[in-house]
Design goal:
338 residues; mainly alpha; 5 strands; binds adenosine-5'-diphosphate; binds sodium ion; aminoacyl-trna synthetase; Tryptophan--tRNA ligase; ATP-binding; aa-tRNA-synth_I_CS; ligase
């Protein structure tokens, strides 16, 4: 049987992924490569929608790929590639942009958020059309163009739902105007994905753009700072290790991280730490976090030492992705009238 196809992308906008990226997305990438025909993309075109440094972008793209491999993404099972290596992404984005209403694009709430944070350089048109490029990323990999009922799956968090809805709308609009070509993609909620909050502000999401260094754990961080951050994580004035999203957001976040990394259920953790206070709980959690990420950090550094091997992986990924993307674009060009 043909496996359902999944597409997911991540931006190379930091020197390391963080714990939230890992538990909310990347760990599921590794799991899904066994059950899906997976296309995983480091989306460097998206990363230039805000001001960037070319050398830094190039390095971060490599580091992102190395981390994904170190986490267990297998380039022989999944198609792992860099967005800019497949020029069809930009070409399809242009076509889809010409099908998008200006007002329709203007309703994207993430743009409103992000543009309000842009500094003196101002907001680019690229940031405005970002969701259209995202639509192209997904639709290029529509399985067997024209086939009914075989939607590509896209893992999305709440903040990406509106963009996926736009992608579905654009797929249908293209089909209506030019003939059946795309299958509207479907949102996929991967089992086991956990939402992780900031260690210092437990009501806010752990985020590379918004969290302070003390609030975020980087995958590539050394064990020392990792332990310190967890020991200093904000909890509450109580002493009970109990899951309560409203009254104990800090402890609840730590329980969620512990359970997700170690596999012990939250009720079992509550029982284990009954009456023992926060100190031992945090100390054990710190160990679990260090044990999870130390091998990933070591493998990443090793992979980065062998540029040639990394380049071979990327060439293989680009070739496989290009095969599918080129076929889709051939149909698109023909239908649009090129
Ligand atoms: P950031 O918010 O740090 O900029 P991104 O928006 O680039 O991260 O997110 C990349 C992926 O990681 C997305 O799939 C997103 O849903 C997931 N992700 C990011 N932060 C978290 C978090 N705190 N908890 C769970 N998943 C997260
Ligand atoms: Na973000």
């Amino acid at each position: 049987a043909v496996r359902p196809r999944v597409f997911s992308g991540i931006q190379p906008t930091a020197d390391s992924f963080h714990l939230g990226n890992y538990l909310g997305a990347l760990r599921q990438w590794v799991a899904m490569q066994d059950t899906h025909d997976a296309f995983y993309c480091v989306v460097d075109l998206h990363a230039i929608t805000i001001e960037h440094d070319p050398a830094v972008l190039r390095r971060r793209t490599k580091v992102a790929i190395a981390q994904l491999l170190a986490m267990g993404v297998d380039p022989d099972r999944a198609t792992l590639f860099v967005q800019s290596h497949v020029p069809e992404h930009a070409e399809l984005a242009w076509v889809l942009g010409c099908l998008t209403g200006f007002g329709e694009a203007g309703r994207m709430t993430q743009f409103k958020d992000k543009s309000s944070k842009q500094g003196t350089g101002g907001t680019s048109v690229g940031l405005f059309t970002y969701p259209i490029l995202q639509a192209a990323d997904i639709l290029l990999y529509t399985p067997d163009p024209g086939a009914e009922g075989r939607a590509i799956r896209v893992p999305v968090g709440e903040d990406q739902r509106q963009h996926l809805e736009l992608t579905r709308t654009l797929a249908q609009r293209f089909n209506h105007r030019f003939g059946e070509t795309f299958v509207p993609p479907e949102a996929h909620i991967p089992p086991g994905a956990a939402k992780i909050t900031d260690l210092q502000e437990p009501d806010a999401k752990m985020s590379k753009s918004a969290s302070s260094p003390q609030g975020i754990i980087d995958v590539l961080e050394e064990p020392g700072p990792m332990r310190k951050k967890i020991m200093r994580a904000v909890t509450d004035t109580g002493t009970e290790v109990v899951y309560d999203e409203e009254k104990k957001a800090g402890v609840t976040n730590l329980l969620r991280i512990f359970s997700a990394l170690d596999g012990t259920s939250v009720p079992d953790l509550e029982r284990r730490y009954e009456g023992s206070g926060y100190g031992q709980f945090k100390k054990d959690l710190a160990q679990v976090v260090v044990d999870t990420f130390t091998p990933i950090r070591e493998r990443t550094l090793k992979l980065l030492d062998d540029e040639e091997q990394l380049d071979r992986v990327l060439a293989q990924g680009a070739e496989r992705a290009s095969g599918v993307a080129a076929r889709t674009m051939e149909i698109v060009r023909e239908r649009v009238g090129f």
